[in-house]
Amino acid sequence: MPIYATTDTATYAPLDLPQPYLLFLGDVTHPAYAKTALGLRDWAPERCVGEHRLDGAGVSVGLPAMTPSQARAAGARALVIGVANVGGVIPDHWMPALLDALANGLDLISGMHMHLADIAALREQARRHGRRLIDVREPPPSLPAASGRKRSGKRVLTVGTDCALGKKYTALSLARALRELGVDADFRASGQTGILIAGRGLPMDAVVSDFAAGAAEWLSPDADPAHWDVIEGQGSLSHPAYAGVSLALLHGSQPDAIVVCHEPGRRDMLGYPGYRLPSIEETIELNLLLGRRTNPAIRCAGISLNTSQLSPNEAQALIASESARLGLPVADPIRGGAALHALARACLDTAP
Questions:
Q1: What integer pLDDT is reported at residue 12 of this predicted model?
Q2: Which of 74, 78, 94, 271 is the most exposed place for a label (fewest CB within 10 A)?
Q3: In whole angstroms, what is the distance from residue 303 CA to residue 322 CA?
Q4: Alpha helices of 53-211 — where are they, by DSSP H?
Q5: pLDDT surpasses 50 at 77
Q6: Are 46 and 20 a contacting pair, CB within 8 Å?
Q7: Mean pLDDT score of the chain
Q8: How many CA atoms lie within 13 A of 51 on its CB side?
Q9: What is the CATH number of domain 21-135?
Q10: Can you give the residue ranges of the D-glutamate N-acetyltransferase-like N-terminal domain (predicted)?
Q11: Angle at 164 between CA 332 and CA 250, to 5 degrees
């Protein structure tokens, strides 16, 4: 079922999503692959009534365990696939749970590359019970190729040394921090989890490559000169599989500032052992070099560290030492505080 109600590609409209949600975790064993469920829990808790896990699951988001029938009785209107696995596939052994959700009165919402609507058994079950299959990883129709035209307004893009290390959380936190500073700022979602949180956006990795930079332009259109769009980054320019999405987003968004996201202690690309992470400095240099193609004034505002594996004291010490070493503001978007507001103010500093 299409989620965009218009074919007008100039319209950045809200999506029609039934709420609240039961979060489906399947049988994932690594938190990085449950980022959709975790993101909804952290940024839209009022829309989440419980979680549904299969045998063998090693990840919980800490919500009450519920069957689809229990969730429906608690007010849920949809089951959201809260998993973002490699390749975005819906395995066969998930099917009984998804069919059960439809039979118990829940719509299905997915951000996977494999669309719900392409699975015959789900289509038939949805038809039988009058339920909806909603695929949010579906870009709006008729996206244009990029124009390269410099747009009005200001933009900050979160970029990273790897996937799944905090680009979305950083963008959401920066947008909130900018608003707290009195700045007119919006979060712009470029992936399935961000779209579910914001209720609008565009799945960059589902766009035909020739139109991906144009999609980034569509995502952040002309705005008031004082307005800031905080754009959720995708992948990494150094990733062996996903660098193309990152480059298109960089070129199309034309950021005035970038914030580099990194997880201390991570050595290899997630899911790609043997592919070492680039350093923060290498990531800054590469993004600025390639970003100058569409915005010669691009600059790095600072660094966002995912310090979730560190104690508060360890995190504070690392944030301070990295800031001193790099000569840039450094913050953890979840720990927040003065460091995050300093990073937000650095995004605004457009002085040469």
A1: 61
A2: 74
A3: 9
A4: 68-73, 95-103, 120-129, 167-180, 192-198
A5: yes
A6: yes
A7: 94
A8: 23
A9: 3.40.50.720
A10: 59-139
A11: 90
DSSP 252: H
pLDDT at site 19 = 95
Same fold, 21-135 and 154-348: yes
Q: Which residues of 185-213 are buried (b: 16+ CB within 10 A; e: fewer)?
A: bbbbbbbbbbbbbbebbbbbbbbeeebbb
The residue assigned the tokens 């504070």 is: 316
Q: What is the largest distance, in Å, between two alpha-carbon atoms of the chain? A: 62
Q: Is the pTM of this model over 0.85?
A: yes
Indicate the length of the chain as a whole number.
Answer: 352
CB atoms within 10 A of CB 341: 17
At 351 the pLDDT is 39
What is the structure's pLDDT at 44?
96
Tell how many helices (H) and how many strands (E) occur in the chain. 11, 13
CA 119, CA 114: separation in Å to the nearest integer? 9
Amino acid letter, residue 275 = Y
Q: What tens digit of pLDDT does each residue of 99-126 get?
A: 999 999 999 999 999 999 999 999 999 9
| Helix H or strand E segment including 39 | helix 35-43
Q: Tell me, which fold does domain 154-348 have in CATH?
A: Rossmann fold (3.40.50)
List the domain boundaries for the chain.
21-135, 154-348
